[in-house]
Amino acid sequence: MQPRLDHDERRKKIRFPLRLAVGLVAGSHRSRASRTLTGNTENVSSNGFLIETESPLFIGERIFATFDWLASLNGTVKLRLETRGEVLRVYNGGLRAAVSIKSHQFKTRGSANHIASSAWT
For residues 51 and 46, what is the distance between their CA atoms, to the nearest angstrom? Predict the structure, then answer.
């Protein structure tokens, strides 16, 4: 897998073309109301990801996203990556969005936390 790094690219981190299923909770800074969505990444870097969703995302929305991670802990324990970030740019009416990663945490996939209950804690 070759990372993507264009000379006129404005992003500072290398993006890897990973297609991963993602569970999302999207919400506003002004409201505690949120909605649950699913999508697939197009690429991922240490600072963010480009995602395609079935419902539009909006610039400035807070995002809590969970990914089933490719690597395993000690080669046997499956991992899930949980991230918190914000929508920076949207394309195709919001069905594709660039999302920043503000924080992240790896958890085992067997953890009892559900996406909606973990979103803003």
Answer: 14
Q: Which is it for strands 96-108 and 77-91: parallel, antiparallel or unpaired?
A: antiparallel
Task: Specify the DSSP class assigned to residue 92.
Answer: G
Domain that holds residue 84: 21-106
Contact 23, 34 (CB under 8 A): no
The owner of tokens 């945490």 is: 105
To which residue do tokens 């973990």 refer?
118
The token duo for 48 is 């963010």
DSSP state of 117: H
Q: Is residue 41 part of a domain?
A: yes
Examine the pLDDT at 77 and tell me if it is beyond 80.
yes
Split into its structural domains, the chain has a count of 1
CATH of the domain at 67: 2.40.10.220
User: What are the Cα distances from residue 14, in Å, to 39, 79, 96, 118?
Assistant: 21, 22, 19, 28
Which pTM was predicted? 0.78
| Position 11 confidence tier, pLDDT thresholds 50, 70, 90 | low
Please write the tens of the pLDDT for every residue from 27-52.
976 767 899 999 999 999 999 999 99
